[in-house]
Design brief:
Layout: H1 3-14, H2 20-47, H3 52-59, H4 63-72, H5 75-88, H6 91-107, H7 140-161, H8 165-188
C-alpha cells in the first residue's frame, strides 16, 4: 500500500480522539516501516545526485538496502514490541507497534518483486505475492482503486471520530495524499 493509506489505516485502527499521544504513536508506527526507504531514496537522489532510475532499479534491490528494509519490516521485531506493549498495557507502544504490524500485514500480500524479508531475523525468506498495490502486471490498477476507496471511506469515518480542526485538516491532507499517490503510479509505470 502507499504510505498515506498506511497512515490512514493505522490511525483508524489505533488512534484515539481523546489521546493525542496514542494517535501520534499510531501515526509513527504506521510510518516507521517505510521511513528508511524515504530517507535512503531522499539522500541518494537529492544529496548524492543519483538518478531515480538507478535508485529504484538497482539500489532498492541491493543486498544492503534489502537488509535495512528487513529490520524495519520485520513481523518478528514489531510483534515483539506489540507483545511488550500489551504485557505492560502501554497504550502508546500498543498503538505504535500495532500500527506497524498492520502496515506489514497489508504490505505482505501486496508486494511482488519488491517484497521484503518480513520474518527477519528468524528467516530471510521473501514472499513474492502474485498481487501488487502498484504494478499493473500484478493487478495494481484494481488493487489501487480498492486501496483509494477504502482509504477515503476510513477518512470519512475518521472525520466523524475526530472533532479537532487540526486533526480534521490532517485527515483531509492524508486523503488528498493517498489519492495523489495512488494515481501517480499509473503515470510512472
Amino acid at each position: 500500500m502507499n504510505t498515506p493509506a498506511h497512515l490512514i489505516v493505522g490511525v483508524a485502527a489505533f488512534g484515539k480522539p481523546d489521546a493525542p499521544r496514542v494517535t501520534g504513536a499510531a501515526l509513527a508506527g504506521a510510518m516507521l516501516p517505510d521511513l528508511s526507504l524515504y530517507v535512503m531514496v531522499g539522500v541518494s537522489i537529492y544529496l548524492l545526485g543519483i538518478e531515480p532510475r538507478v535508485v529504484f532499479r538497482e539500489y532498492y534491490y541491493s543486498d544492503a538496502w534489502q537488509q535495512v528494509f528487513a529490520v524495519d519490516n520485520s513481523f518478528v521485531l514489531w510483534g515483539g514490541l506489540l507483545a511488550l506493549g500489551l504485557c505492560y498495557r502501554h497504550a502508546a507502544l500498543i498503538a505504535c507497534a500495532g500500527a506497524a504490524c498492520l502496515h506489514l500485514a497489508f504490505d505482505f500480500p501486496l508486494h511482488n518483486h519488491d517484497a521484503r524479508m518480513h520474518f527477519w531475523p528468524v528467516s530471510s525468506w521473501v514472499f513474492e505475492s502474485p498481487l501488487s498495490y502498484w504494478d499493473s502486471r500484478h493487478y495494481g490498477e484494481s488493487i489501487g482503486l480498492l486501496e483509494v476507496a477504502v482509504s477515503l471511506l476510513l477518512c470519512a469515518l475518521l472525520l466523524l471520530r475526530f472533532r479537532k480542526l487540526l486533526m480534521r485538516a490532517g485527515i483531509a491532507l492524508l486523503a488528498a495524499a493517498e489519492t495523489f499517490a495512488s494515481g501517480i503510479w499509473h503515470f510512472i509505470f
